[in-house]
Amino acid sequence: MRGARTFRRGGVHPPEEKHHTAGKPVEGAPLPERLVVPLSQHIGAPARPLVKKGDRVLGGQAIGEPVGFVSAPVHAPTSGKVRRVEPAPHPLGTPQPAVEIEVDGEDAWGEPMEPFDDPFGADPEAVRSRIQAAGIVGMGGATFPTHVKLSPPPELSIDTVILNGAECEPYLTADHRLMVEAPGAVIKGLGVILGLFGLERGYIGVEENKPDAIEALEREARASGFAEVVPLKVKYPQGAEKQLIQTITGREVPSGALPMAVGAVVQNVGTAAAIWEAVSRGRPLVERVVTVTGAGVREPRNLLVRVGTPVGHLVALCGGLAGEPGKVILGGPMMGLTQHTLDVPAIKGTSGVLVLPREAVRTAPEGPCIRCGRCVEACPMGLSPTTLRALIHADLVAEADEWGALDCIECGSCSFVCPAFVALVQSIRYAKGRVMALRRGG
Amino acid sequence: MIEAVVVLGGLGLVAALGLSLASLRFRVEVDPRVEAIEAVLPGANCGACGYAGCSAFARALAGGEAPPNACIPGGPEVARAVAEILGVEAADVARRLAVVHCGGTRDAAPDKGIYQGVPDCRAAVLVGGGPKLCPYGCLGLGTCERVCPFHAIRVGPDGIPRVDRQRCTGCGKCVGTCPKELIELLPEDNRVHVRCANPLRGKAVGAVCSRGCIGCRRCEKACPFGAMAMDGALARIDPAPCTSCGVCATVCPTGAIEDLVEVRYRARIDAEACIGCTKCARVCPVDAISGEKKKPHAVDPDRCVGCGRCAGECPKGAIGRGELLVRAPREAAG
Q1: Any CB–CB contact under 8 A between B133 and chain A?
Q2: B101-139 confidence digits (pLDDT tens)
Q3: pLDDT tens-digit map of B72-99
Q4: Which of A189, B13, B104, B168 is the Cys-Cys partner for B152 at CB 3.0 to 4.6 Å?
Q5: CA angle B78, B80, B84 (to 5 degrees)
Q6: ipTM above 0.90, yes or no
Q7: Is B118 within 8 Å of A426 when comparing Cβ atoms?
Q8: What is the pLDDT of residues A387-398, one digit of tens each?
């Protein structure tokens, strides 16, 4: 591999654990009997429901409309009957409004949206509104509405588009398999994004532990003439936006600013493929690749999953639980969300379902900080996690602000290295909330 | 020896002279009333008045910017003392106390998993909404207990905070701290409360807590004073008409209504003093009083709920305490 690169500061090397599923091709998951499609699968205002109990819906039909600009619509992932529209279990941990669809098994689809004749040279505004209409959100897990990220204010000029194929979270191989199996859709999605900004060239960052993905993408990239694959060293959090920008462009996103401030836009490879689907085939975002893995499931697999499929259904497709589960996490082990029920659905941002067996989960309280400084070394943002924690526990909110609490990207590196198992990220997350309240004038 | 005394004594004299001159020259004028007011304030620096501590409040009072009754913990006594110092009239402040609207103890409302994070409700709520299965319930990690300047809230071994109504001053610090917004300040006289904040319907509530309000409306039907209002599927008590008679608590099937009144007495009419004006019979919400006009009235002890409303109406003071009203103690289900 020629000169793989990485970011400068901090970072950690958790066990990769990708071997469970890295070599397994994506398989289509059979439809469950019912889908629970949350109206909030994105950051921003939840969608407003467009259907009611008893309605029949077709695949691809909009069942929730966006409320405002920072919002996204939600579509029916297949055909069926609406059983209810009310709060249901949600990956965030508390019930959220959702449309429950009784799947009829016909998988009948409505008319797709009109495909674009020239996806790469189409009117940028038309492409942006198509991306919103297709309900596309950041599929790396943050689920920020993609059209918003692709609409920088006019005073900022974008000169760099980066696709994020780092997939630095342990266990996950969803993006890996997508890049190996559908490199064309990823590269063409990048082409559509480049067209929005009138750019000639874009980058795809991939960690070098995925040589087959790099090879597949490079073949497509050469044919396209506008994409460059950048091999990255394996280091967590290589796929964090700011770290990826620094690695590829050398530019540092200033504290408190968005990547667009340094002229960069970063999109997940899955998001790029979804953009291509929406623009070339008129398909809304209703399915994604989910890695179901961990020692707690019998047969880990990569599955192509309709949004709204209950996690229990996915686990059953993977041979069921192996022994007593200790922790079920949606996403990766570093930044994923722990669940208390398998009734929660997989949503647009669900990259993986990780089941850890009981014996693999540590259940002891946090110990005292021994001031070893490992969290400071690990922090990719150059913060001092232990100081931030001490400040917020002493209610020193303004001081936590001065020490850069808001720069924390919540990657979990500090908590990962802490020998005393101190809940550092959680404390800093709490501090961020307090700092923001203070800045609002609280 | 003598030189040392002279030198040191002289130095001391010079320094003393300088200091006393400086204290005259650079004296800071303090309104004597500020110090007097500070002396009568509770000194807890709780901030309930809206100022940064008692000193700041005292300065605002002396400057005429704050009303004398703004000190909530101090109550009417402090308001009177402050008004006296300032030479103004103080309006009375109604004492209000903190009430926690959740009774989901550990045995009644289970957790959804093991929580090992920061032992603070405001931090715990960031992890999937907190460890409790009921998304509206008290997390019991004691953030309210820690912010209370008067040590009036304590989380019991059952995981639910209790308010010490003697110590609570109604400063409201806990109110703004609870991430589930479960604490409310209610008039001291209201001693019957709904200990649930889950607005979902019965089935959904029952799935997460055995002591929650299931919206059956039995309390609403039973309330003699029309003080029970349904907020969707959640019962709420309107403090103004409520007389804390406790009838609602006796009919609640899940024990979601707490009754803090320890003893109640049934009404008894002194037949000698009663003039038969019928006023008591007209106000009785449960029709427990009967009698002909101009003749002595009587209370049906089986119907009387002990609300005491009739006693307040009687022009002759003929209604007094009758027998003790003992209700079967309510063991909440679950």
Answers
A1: yes
A2: 999 999 999 999 889 899 999 999 999 999 999 999 999
A3: 888 888 888 888 888 887 666 678 899 9
A4: B168
A5: 115
A6: no
A7: yes
A8: 999 999 999 999
Element (H, E) at A194: helix A183-197
Residues of chain A with pLDDT under 70: 1-2, 442
Which CATH topology does B95-188 take?
Answer: Alpha-Beta Plaits (3.30.70)
At A384, list the tokens. Answer: 């001092």
The pLDDT value recorded for residue A421 is 92
Q: Which residues in chain A have their CB less than 8 angstroms from residue B179's CB?
A: none
For chain B, which residues make up each domain, given as ranges? 33-86, 95-188, 198-262, 264-325
Q: Does A440 touch chain B (CB under 8 A)?
A: no
CB nearest to A423's CB, from B118, B128, B133: B118
Inform me whether the C-beta atom of residue A367 falls under 8 Å from chain B C-beta atoms.
no
* SS3 assignment, position B263: coil
- Tell me how crowded residue B35 is: count the other CB atoms within 10 A of its CB: 12
Largest CA distance in chain A: 62
- Domain B33-86 annotated CATH 3.90.180.10: no
**Could you report the per-residue pLDDT of B210-236, keeping only the tens digit for each?**
999 999 999 999 898 899 999 889 999
Single pTM value for the model = 0.85
- CB–CB of A29/A305 below 8 Å? yes
Tell me which chain B residues have a C-beta less than 8 angstroms from the C-beta of A430: 118, 120, 122-123, 126
Domain boundaries along the sequence of chain A:
134-280, 374-439
Query: What does CATH list as the number for B264-325?
Result: 3.30.70.20
b/e per residue B41-52 (b: at least 16 CB within 10 A): bbebebbbbebe
Write out chain B residues lying below 8 Å of A433, CB-based.
Answer: 122, 126
Q: What is the mean pLDDT of chain B?
A: 89
We find that the CATH architecture of domain A134-280 is 3-Layer(aba) Sandwich (3.40)
